[in-house]
Amino acid sequence: MAAQQGMPTSALRGLEEALGMGMTVSGDTNEAVAAEGAYYLEQVTLTEASEDDYEYEEIPDDNFSIPEGEEDLAKAIQMVQEQATDTQILEQKTVLSSKHAVPEAIEDFLCNFLIKMGMTRTLDCFQSEWYELLQKGVTELRDVGNVPDVYSQNMLLENENKNLKKELKHYKQAADKAREDLLKTQKVRDFHRMHHKRTVQEKNKLINDLKGLKLHYASYEPTIRVLHEKHHTLLKQKMLTSLERDRAVGQIYGLQETLKHMEIGHSSHAPEIRVAPNCEKENAPEGPTQKGLREAREQNKRKTKMKVNKKDSEFPTDMQPNPNLSLCKENICPAKFDYKLNNILRLHKLPVSCIVVHPHKDILVSCGEDRVWKVVGLPRGNVLLTGLGHTDWLSDCCFHPSGNKLATASGDTTVKLWDLFKGSCISTFEGHTHAVWSCTWHSCGDFVASSSLDTTSKIWDVNSERCRYTLYGHTDSVNSIEFFPYSNILLTGSADKTLSVWDARTGKCEQSLYGHMHSINDATFTPRGHVIASCDACGVTKLWDFRKLSPIVSIDVGPSPGNEVNFNSSECHLSLTPTRY
């Protein structure tokens, strides 16, 4: 019982100590009430009604005025003194006594310490034993005492020290990072500074070169004027010479007519022919320019005579039936073979652009960007023939149906025909204005078709060595061209994302196929010719029904571009050659 009575008293004492400040404040309030008297409420009515039912406080007017009729000097002085006193009271600052810090009890300090250290089991044992002692009355709260301020201060300082160490660590990391960023920025600054100096040096050099070129050009202006004057003089001489030539030609025609009349009249004496001035001109020494013009005229005359003698080929009307129709009826897929690398042929100094296998013999032809094509025997890989003649890279080649001739397309805007037995060029077709991408033979062997970067395709006559038709219609580079097997139909694929079907006999476009979203790089027929395969620059391959001229299926094998597409002989497999960058 004594312990139970001691506990509430000690608890009350602790509460009084914890709430000592609040009790003193309430006590002061009671003393003030006793001194000044009891408070009461008084009802006040406002003279003017408010619009929004808001109660405004009445602000006292500091500008006092003495009422009329009571103009007493003593009263006025008293009112002034009272107002000054009120002002001083309002200006004084009320200093509240600081709250008395209650020291922490020892048991609370120990509990907080154990909680902070995470010693939960020790905390449970301590609390159970501590409260058991309190219930038995062996220990009282007032006998235990409080924790000295030094320990609590040490704990606070340790916590603050840990926090400061953490902040210091973070600041060091931030400083190291800032130092690294500063070094990187300095390096970048030095690099840009050097680049700027180099650019300024190059700019100054270019300015000096430009000034030198201007001076050099200025020094040539008098020479250019003299050459212009000489040019005009030569033009005048040319006109006079042409007039003299026409006059001499007229005289020759007149003399020839006279000779004819004399031969008809059987006269024995012929009149004198005076062409002494012309003979003198012919016997006079020729300059290099006149000599070159005379040789060019003679060469052109020879070419025109040869072309006049050669007749144009005619497109065949009765075409040979396609032999692949009977071979592919069974539609038997070939067996799978385990292919192994047999030999590596190093033929060109620059990348290889095209490889074509001979239709009847075990040889192949490879074309490269080193302007050379080579005939290689299989399987040993020995070089049988080397073709030189193009002035730029080779893009494509194609065998004649008989296998005796070869057509090559080049970046020098020409198509050349080669005799494989003699190893020499037999024809050169000139007419394209940009690089030629592809070429193909007609099944009769009398025509060659070519496609070019200049957005056109051309059909060349091998016998007359001239362009029979120029195919206009594409709006971008024509990348591939191929004849329909044993037919007069041409297929072209262009970078304008379309396929076009042409009649080679008229040079007109019969049908255009739309569906690709990117540049078409290659297009080909199946051996039977009923399906078209095309590939574009995004790796999309499409199959088209040639009879219906409609798409069948679309296969996306991108993102690498498709460079070439081919069918095997059984039409069961389709091979696509991608371009890797």
From TrEMBL:
Necessary for sperm flagellar function. Plays a role in motile ciliogenesis. May help to recruit STK36 to the cilium or apical surface of the cell to initiate subsequent steps of construction of the central pair apparatus of motile cilia. Residues 154-181 form a coiled coil. WD repeats lie at residues 387-428, 429-470, 471-512, 513-554. Signal peptide: none annotated. It comes from the Eukaryota. Keywords: Cell projection, Cilium, Cilium biogenesis/degradation, Coiled coil, Cytoplasm, Cytoskeleton, Flagellum, Phosphoprotein, Repeat, WD repeat. It comes from Camelus ferus. GO terms for biological process: axoneme assembly. It holds the Pfam family WD40. One of its GO terms (cellular component) is axonemal central apparatus. Interacts with SPAG6 and STK36. InterPro entries: WD-F-box_domain-protein (IPR050995), WD40/YVTN_repeat-like_dom_sf (IPR015943), WD40_PAC1 (IPR020472), WD40_repeat_CS (IPR019775), WD40_repeat_dom_sf (IPR036322), WD40_rpt (IPR001680). PROSITE patterns: WD_REPEATS_1 (PS00678), WD_REPEATS_2 (PS50082), WD_REPEATS_REGION (PS50294). This is Sperm-associated antigen 16 protein. It is found in: Cytoplasm, Cytoskeleton, Flagellum axoneme. SMART domains: WD40. Residues 279-321 are annotated as: Disordered. The gene is SPAG16. Residues 292-301 have a biased composition (Basic and acidic residues).
